[in-house]
């Protein structure tokens, strides 16, 4: 009698196997979410650092260019030169803002790979 009880406990039933499979799938998907989060964090930090460096260097270059143009035209066309530089900066700022807006609108979905895997899992469970 004890041998029968032990053999029944040794073999998991079909419900137990299904539950184990579901938990295994969930663990895999959660791990995938973690990997995607780490990749997105690294990507964002890299882009942020390069963006800040580019902004700082561009600001220094524009400041120097503005001073150079103002000094060059100081005796003849000082306010026209400064107005022209201001207009160029304003147009460049508008173009940059427009590109940023487009980049945010066209950004890929975060966790797209995880969502695709969940969809595959859902289809697999619907078939069975």
Characterise this structure.
- With 128 residues, the protein is mainly α.
- It has one domain.
- Helix content is 88%, strand content 0%.
- The chain has helices at 2-10, 14-72, 78-105, 112-127.
- α2 packs antiparallel against α3 (78-105) and α2 (14-72) runs antiparallel to α4.
- The chain is rod-shaped.
Produce the secondary structure layout.
Layout: H1 2-10, H2 14-72, H3 78-105, H4 112-127
Tag the structure with descriptive keywords.
mainly alpha, 4 helices, 0% strand
Structure in a nutshell:
The chain is mainly α and 128 residues long. The chain has one domain. The protein contains 4 helices and no strands.
Largest sheet entry = none
Determine the mean pLDDT: 82
Rg computed from alpha carbons, rounded to a whole number of angstroms:
30 Å
Q: Count structural domains.
A: 1
Note the beta-strand portion: under 5%
Number of helices: 4
Q: What is the straight-line distance between the termini?
A: 36 Å
Say what oligomer this is.
Answer: single chain
The number of E-state strands comes to: 0
């Amino acid at each position: 009698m004890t041998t029968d009880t032990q053999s029944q406990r040794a073999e998991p039933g079909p419900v137990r196997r299904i539950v184990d499979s579901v938990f295994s799938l969930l663990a895999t998907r959660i791990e995938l979410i973690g990997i995607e989060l780490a990749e997105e964090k690294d990507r964002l930090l890299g882009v942020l650092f390069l963006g800040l460096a580019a902004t700082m260097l561009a600001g220094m270059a524009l400041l120097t260019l503005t001073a150079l143009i103002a000094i060059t035209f100081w005796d003849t066309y000082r306010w026209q030169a400064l107005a022209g530089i201001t207009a160029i900066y304003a147009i460049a700022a508008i173009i940059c803002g427009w590109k940023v807006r487009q980049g945010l609108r066209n950004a890929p979905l975060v966790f797209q790979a995880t969502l695709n895997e969940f969809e595959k899992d859902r289809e697999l469970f619907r078939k069975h």
